[in-house]
């Protein structure tokens, strides 16, 4: 039987969420990294839409990180990411929905508002598993991609500021919801994985599985420094330290 295949962007936090679930469950899988923009042809052919991650599992192409984790729980139930007790499972899934809807899009919009003026940085983030020819072509086409992303993602100064405030509100929610165990429940679940993965672009934990460029734009450095002492920021670092583990990817990238 062929191993599952994860179609992904290297630097995206929703893609990191799916990768982490595969690695946590020790599911041997193949990763195929794409460049934003040119990725759309392949992903639309697989799923009829253009968002990644997409997991091909037992012949099914599954998009959306929450749906991917749901499929993994059914196919590979151990170790679990869903609590066994019904009320705890319902709470974990509700927290996942909150972070998927109220944190992930806002981290992405705020980050891209500050990253898109730096095409070299963005190419380094997303192109590290692409060949030199593909990276060069992508860099040449970057002005068009930047215009499309700015329009489709609603990236402007006012909405970026709204996203910054939404991100801070999500940090508040994390700090409110965490229990004495250091998790949202009795142990590590989909809720903890989701919150930590979606904050990875801001926290930059050392266990993140892909190399990140060092010349980070000053605005991102300043925001990271402004929240670095917060319990939620330190919690993300701790979740990565305890639970990120090694890659379960197999085969050539």
Task: Supply the key terms.
single chain; alpha+beta; Glutaredoxin; Glutathione S-transferase Yfyf (Class Pi), Chain A, domain 2; four-stranded mixed sheet; 4 strands; 58% helix; 6% strand; globular
Description:
α1 links the parallel β1 and β2. The longest helix is centred in the middle third of the chain and has 21 residues. This protein has a four-stranded mixed beta sheet with strand order 2-1-3-4, sandwiched between helices. The chain folds into two domains: 71 residues, 3-Layer(aba) Sandwich (Glutaredoxin), CATH 3.40.30; 158 residues, Glutathione S-transferase Yfyf (Class Pi), Chain A, domain 2. The protein has 253 residues and is of the alpha+beta class. The protein is 58% helix and 6% strand.
Short note summarizing the structure:
By secondary structure, the chain is of the alpha+beta class.
Backbone CA Rg:
18 Å
Number of helices: 13
The helix/strand order is EHEHEEHHHHHHHHHHH
Q: Count of DSSP E strands?
A: 4
CATH architecture of the largest domain: Up-down Bundle
Shape: globular
Q: What's the overall average pLDDT, rounded?
A: 94
Output the CATH topology of the largest domain: Glutathione S-transferase Yfyf (Class Pi), Chain A, domain 2
The assigned structural class equals alpha+beta
The biggest beta sheet is recorded as:
4 strands, mixed
**Unreliable runs:** none
Topology (elements, then pairings):
Layout: E1 5-8, H1 13-24, E2 30-33, H2 39-47, E3 54-57, E4 60-63, H3 65-75, H4 86-102, H5 104-115, H6 119-126, H7 132-140, H8 142-152, H9 157-177, H10 190-198, H11 200-203, H12 218-227, H13 231-243
Parallel strand pairs: 1-2
Antiparallel strand pairs: 1-3, 3-4
